[in-house]
Each structure stands twice: as C-alpha cells, then as structure tokens.
Design goal:
Length: 87
C-alpha cells in the first residue's frame, strides 16, 4: 500500500516574538545617510537591503532606512553589491 493517499500531518506554527523597532524605542537614534556604521546593520552580506520582518523596523522607519541606504549608495558611501573576490 502506498503513502500517496495519506493526508499530510498538520504543521505547527512556531511563535516568534517580534522585534521592536529600535528607532521607536530609542528616540536619540537618527537615520542619516552619512552614518554608514548604523546603516550597515540593515544591509545583508550580498549588499541587499534587509526586509522589515527581519530587521524589526516599523514601516515608517524602514522607509527612512531604505532612503538613507539608497542615498549613501549614490554618493559611494555604501556599495551597491558585495565585493567579489576572484580566487
């Protein structure tokens, strides 16, 4: 007898606690395109902008972070992509 007709077992959804927005929690933090140290946290190793569900930012601050990263890239403070090594 084959297992093709068996219904799949229901998958459990794991509860993951949402991170709070660091900019809402600490009002002294500013999002500025000139502060590349702070913006590097929101860029992956490949150079992509980290999504909101991963970074934990609220929607308003995520938009500001995206804008700051794009501005920093345009004036060459941040790279568009990861640097490739030809080994």
């Amino acid at each position: 007898m084959s297992n093709f007709n068996k219904p799949a077992a229901p998958q459990r959804r794991r509860f993951v606690r949402r991170k709070g927005c660091r900019f809402c929690a600490d009002k002294t933090l500013k999002i500025d395109y000139k502060e590349t140290k702070n913006l590097r946290y929101f860029i992956s190793e490949r150079g992509k902008i980290v999504p909101r569900r991963i970074s934990g930012n609220c929607a308003a601050h995520q938009r500001k972070v995206n804008e700051a990263i794009k501005r920093a890239r345009n004036i060459a403070l941040l790279p568009f992509t990861a640097s490739h090594s030809m080994d």
